[in-house]
Amino acid sequence: MLSNSAIKLRALEPDDLDFLFSIENQTQYWHLSDTLQPFSKHILQQYLDQAHLDIYEAKQLRLVIANQKDNPLGLIDLYDFNPKHKRAGLGIILHQNYQGKGFGKTAINLMLNYAFDTLDLHQVHVTINSENINSIKLFELLGFQLIGEQKDWNYSNGNYYSQYFYQKINHVH
Question: Residue span of the signal peptide, if any (predicted)?
Answer without folding.
Answer: none
